[in-house]
Amino acid sequence: MKKQKENELLIHTRDSLVLLNAMAHDLKQPLTTIIGFVDLCICNMDQIGEDNLKKYLNMVLKLAQKADQQIALIAQNNFDLSSLVLVLEKFDLVAFLEEMTNCQRAYFDDKNLHFKLLIDEFPREVTSCLPALEIILRNLISNAVKFTPMDGEISMEVTRSDKLIRISIQDSGVGMDAGQLQQLYEKGRSKPGTCGEVGFGIGLPLCKQIADRVGIQLTFQSQIGMGTLVHLEFESIT
């Protein structure tokens, strides 16, 4: 009995540390984006215009609110993060994706990337693990931006077949060979992006662990020089 309790404690601690790392990694991006928006406004105050200034400030506000919500969720769960991503909730998938990609506009604009969001006609309301989905998607989009050169293209297509939701992210980036695809989830294998962007090499490994935990399936297709296609699939729980 004592050994069983020790094993359960070890598993619980390991899961909590994994998710704490994921949250810390996920909070870094909105904070970086906020810094970027503020720097953009300061450096271009005379040319930016009132409309653009309001747009950027609204994005900064949304990103700050999102970061605050994540911290509040962690505190409310007394840092028991193993249950945090397992909470099911109903949400408008289209509105969620539009807001998420709008918050990435600074990254798209910084590299002059053309972004398209393609959504089939289907019932918008889904039930899933929103915190987990948000962590995974934000990392996938960040990677697509990181490894796509200036003036490239990124598209996100959403399709639905009954309860099965598929979100596909295609980029025109540098791509990967078969060996790189096999090592995709190994920690510490981050390499610089097309404009020298750096990472910690923990994003995709953590995404994979979270995806497996909540029943989200990730598949990657890629070729050197031909970009990368990622499929994210999950079932809307009724």
Please describe what this structure looks like.
The protein is an alpha+beta fold and about 240 residues long. It has a single domain (about 1-235), classed as Histidine kinase-like ATPase, C-terminal domain (Heat Shock Protein 90, 2-Layer Sandwich). The protein is about 50% helix and about 20% strand. The protein has eight helices and seven strands. The protein has helices at about 1-45, 45-50, 50-75, 95-100, 105-110, 130-145, 180, 205-215, and strands at about 90, 115-120, 125-130, 155-160, 165-170, 215-220, 230-235. The strands form two sheets. It has a five-stranded mixed sheet with strand order 2-4-5-7-6, covered by helices on one side. Strands 1-3 form a two-stranded antiparallel ribbon. Helix 1 runs antiparallel to helix 3 (about 50-75), helix 1 (about 1-45) packs across helix 8 (about 205-215) and helix 6 packs antiparallel against helix 8 (about 205-215). It is globular. The two termini are about 35 Å apart. The relative contact order is 0.13. The model has no long low-confidence stretch (mean pLDDT about 80).
Q: What's a concise summary of this model?
A:
The protein is of the alpha+beta class. It has eight helices and seven strands; from the N terminus they run H-H-H-E-H-H-E-E-H-E-E-H-H-E-E. The protein has one domain (about 1-235): Histidine kinase-like ATPase, C-terminal domain (Heat Shock Protein 90).
Topology record:
Layout: H1 2-43, H2 45-48, H3 50-76, E1 89-92, H4 93-102, H5 105-110, E2 114-119, E3 125-128, H6 130-146, E4 153-161, E5 164-171, H7 178-182, H8 203-214, E6 217-222, E7 228-235
Parallel strand pairs: 2-4
Antiparallel strand pairs: 1-3, 4-5, 5-7, 6-7
Helix pairs in contact: 1-3, 1-6, 1-8, 6-8
